[in-house]
Design brief:
Layout lengths: L7 H38 L5 E2 H5 L8 E8 L5 E8 L2 E12 L4 E11 L16 E8 L19 E3 L4 H8 L3 E8 L17 H44 L1
Parallel strand pairs: 1-2, 3-7, 5-8
Antiparallel strand pairs: 2-4, 2-6, 3-4, 4-5, 6-8
Helix pairs in contact: 1-4
């Protein structure tokens, strides 16, 4: 390819970056497709009739399934999910173990968001003492949860965490429990229960994919331009030297 001389360093840079940019674009497309499927599953299952906990336990794909609960909360082992915002306000989400009487199963129920404007003062919440009939739905996170810190097993209650795995909590408490979080619907036991299904919609993933593909295209275009430009410069330089020798 006498008419194309990009040089070793630009070729090395393109060889490393171009596959990375393209793969990131396809990764964002895949994430967008996953989010779209989640939204469709959410819309379908949130209109279905709630099922008892016993039927939930036999479901291999419980995401967004609505569930009937009858039992009581364990106020002693409350968990506060930190860094949760609503309308620009900082706060936490309150999760508490709930014992379903019919199945004898423990479930970790998210009762919703409450404000925490002053971190010098603990968040204020109350827990119903009587038995309750609740409707909740199963939350399954889309992908692995990013944790800034591990669940601080052995810490005091209520426990402040950035993320939680129910299975670890049940092992610590030596209880038989459901391994996914349940989010209660708005009712007498809930705080602000307006969770988004996904933090980032499919359209944003598509937008990010377009950006990655555009960067890859620009990088490859610059590489081609540099190669042709260097080849022309070398050709013109060689022609000038030949003229001088004549």
């Amino acid at each position: 390819m006498k008419g194309f001389r990009p040089g070793f360093v630009p070729t090395l840079v393109v060889a490393l970056l171009l596959p990375l940019l393209v793969s990131l674009g396809f990764w964002q497309l895949g994430r967008g497709e996953q989010k779209q499927q989640l939204l469709e599953s959410y819309a379908e299952r949130r209109t279905a009739e709630p099922v008892p906990v016993a039927r939930l336990l036999d479901n291999p794909d419980p995401a967004f399934q609505r569930v009937w609960l009858h039992g009581h909360f364990d106020a002693e082992h409350s968990v506060l999910l930190d860094n949760r915002q609503r309308d620009g306000r900082v706060g936490v989400e309150l999760l508490q173990p709930f014992l379903d009487q019919a199945s004898g199963q423990w479930l970790l129920v998210n009762r919703g968001w409450l404000p925490w404007p002053d971190r010098r003062v603990p968040p204020v919440f109350s827990t119903p003492e009587q038995e309750l009939d609740l409707v909740a739905w199963v939350y399954v996170a889309p992908g692995a949860t990013f944790q800034l810190q591990a669940d601080p097993a052995g810490a005091n209650w209520p426990r402040l965490v950035t993320a939680i795995e129910p299975g670890k909590l049940w092992r610590e408490l030596d209880r038989r429990g459901f391994t996914y979080e349940l989010r209660v619907q708005t009712g007498p036991a809930s705080y602000l229960a307006d969770w988004p299904v996904v933090a980032m919609g499919p359209e944003k993933h598509l937008g990010y994919a377009v950006q990655w593909f555009a960067l890859a295209f620009a990088l490859f275009g610059l590489y081609l331009y540099l190669g042709w430009h260097n080849a022309r410069e070398k050709h013109h330089g060689s022609g000038h030297e030949s003229t001088q020798h004549v």
